[in-house]
Amino acid sequence: MVPLSYYLVLSGILFACGVTGFLIKRNIITIFMSIELMLNGVNLSFVAFAAHWHTLAGQVFVFFVMVVAAAEAAVGLAIIIAVYRTRETLNVDQVNLLKL
Amino acid sequence: MNVHLILFLAFGAIAVAGAVNLLVQRHPINSALSLIAVMAALAGEYLLLGAEFVAAVQVIVYAGAIMVLFVFTIMLLNAGEEERTQGSRIAFLFGIPGMLLGSVLVAWVVLKHSGTEAVAAGGWTDALATVPAQSVPGSPETIGPLLFHEFLLPFEITSILILIAIMGAVVLASKPTVPGGGPPQKVKD
């Protein structure tokens, strides 16, 4: 049997890796992947708490988080394609103007 | 060391290694593949927690659909290696020790403190209580009625959200052919 805190620590490590990637990465696609990593870390804690409290609501919440993540990925990648089409770069340091 | 703990540690090691590899790799396609490894390992963790439906959806939607979208975009845009930029020295001097200190503190509090002290009402006294495997039957058979009765309104709202996201993605990613319509044309300067 695995204690609940182990799952929470693993979830925290994954979330911290996501935050670190969001801050240090310069490629806009990798930054987006770091956001997905953060969402995965949160999902793990949802499922761990659902198993701990013997309720299924946490798992339904994970389902909704996944749906929102899918919608976010579709719109975000479309935005990335639009940004690349106008700027011809994926480096966020060079995407610093609102207006072309 | 029972089987559950060994499996938890194995899947957790894969997940953490993939997450660190995502940070270390410079080419986006390598980061995407390591993120797929993280998601597959997390599906294993969900199976250990008895959440079979969530594990299946994790593999199908996350490791399947979303990551295919990512890899497809990386290939479409022909993304190369990212160039490293010099961060500030102060961030390196204070940020990394501060981050280590904070994470050690949080892990220590979670692992030691919350097991012995009652934090608040609501039964948060047994944070170190074990999570019994297969305690929650998270099969589609039990998730389905919950999703379509208690959570029917959020379910319908997310379906509308998905519809809007599809239309938004099509509008944003489509080539601007009609002048005046769609995203702005590229301006040469």
- Can you tell me the residue ranges of chain A where pLDDT is under 50 for at least 5 consecutive residues? none
Percent of residues in β-strands of chain B = under 5%
**What is the fold-level CATH name, i.e. the topology of chain A?**
Helix Hairpins
Task: Give the number of DSSP strands of chain B.
Answer: 1
In CATH terms, the superfamily of the domain at 1-81 in chain B is NADH-ubiquinone/plastoquinone oxidoreductase chain 6, subunit NuoJ
Provide the structure class of chain B: mainly alpha
Radius of gyration of chain A, in angstroms, nearest whole number:
17 Å
- What is the typical, i.e. mean, pLDDT of chain A? 90
DSSP summary, beta strand count of chain A: 1
Low-pLDDT segments, ≥5 res of chain B: 116-129
Strand-and-helix sequence of chain B, N→C?
HHHHEHH
Q: Could you give a short account of the major beta sheet of chain B?
A: none
Helix fraction of chain A, binned, reads: over 70%
Shape of chain B: extended
Q: Beta fraction of the residues of chain A? A: under 5%
For the terminal residues of chain B, how far apart are their CA atoms? Answer: 66 Å
Name of the CATH architecture of the domain at 1-81 in chain B: Up-down Bundle
Estimated structural class of chain A? mainly alpha
| Rg over C-alpha atoms of chain B, rounded to the nearest angstrom | 23 Å
**How would you sum up the global shape of chain A?**
elongated
